[in-house]
What we know:
mainly beta
Amino acid sequence: MRVSRIVALLAAASLTASAPAPYPVVKPDIALRFPRDHGAHPQFRTEWWYVTGWLRTADGADLGFQVTFFRTRPPVDPANPSRFAAGQVMFAHAALSDPKVGRLLHGERSARAGFGLAGADTGVADVKILDWRLRRSVDGRWATQVAASGFELALTFAPTQPPLPQGQGGYSRKGPQPGAASYYYSIPHLKVTGQVRREGALVSVTGEAWLDREWSSNYLQGDAQGWDWAGLNFDDGSALMAFRIRRRSGGTLWAGGSLRHADGTTVTLAPGDVAFRAVARWRSPVTGATYPVAQELSVRLPGGVRRWSLTPLFAAQELDARRSGLPVYWEGAVRTAGGRGYLELTGYDRALTM
């Protein structure tokens, strides 16, 4: 569950056309194919490549990071012969969580696909926007380079586990309506090496990351307020993804996720198996939004209910992109017993419209 999808849809909504082509419907009973599905699916309305993780510097300092690339197909007639028609639009977010700074550092990029400036290849993962890039090599490693105001990232991600299809073999429901869904897989436990530049200093880092891939044409149904999402890498090699879609009138509209054990066996979580409970809240002095930044995550498994306390690296990990017409959300590095990961909170500033 990634907030980049909101950005993509907002961008699409700002563009008009007289004869848009229909978008494919996300349906069950599909089979993900690799490496093909690492690449773009340009027929769908929106798509994202989303990496989050923890880094550690040589002197033992902890950092969190986010790198997101996504593309959207605006409602433009594909028969339009103009090279300037915005058939595909690309966006990206990057962020660094540094406790010494005490707030989120972030940057953005956007461009229409084409002209050598931006694009997303099909069949292979290679997405770029101007000087930002994320790509997968034939040896299976991923690499990214981004440069924003206040920081730069040059990171390589080496998979230690195979892709994890979410939902029903990659078909991930997001609400009671079957069409409110995405094709979704994750790659947890990516081994990270690389460098971070902060305040002119280049620092070597190591760490562990989580990659999410989703593509969809109809993500949220109309009575959804937003979502809470968590992706956790555990020290024993297991991995947990859990989310809930919040209803505008209150309560949970839908929920789900998966737990892959260290031996590779996977439990798929149904809506009644997942619960988030706020433990501590933080109110943004900038946007006024109040977020449940510390939560208890409960998951019903075959052996009984398990609970994890999610504690943020620090509270002020809000990404405020209003100046560029993009949404406000909280994307933060969190600790838990026996592991680390990321928590994402959307729809706390206002209801999401997708």
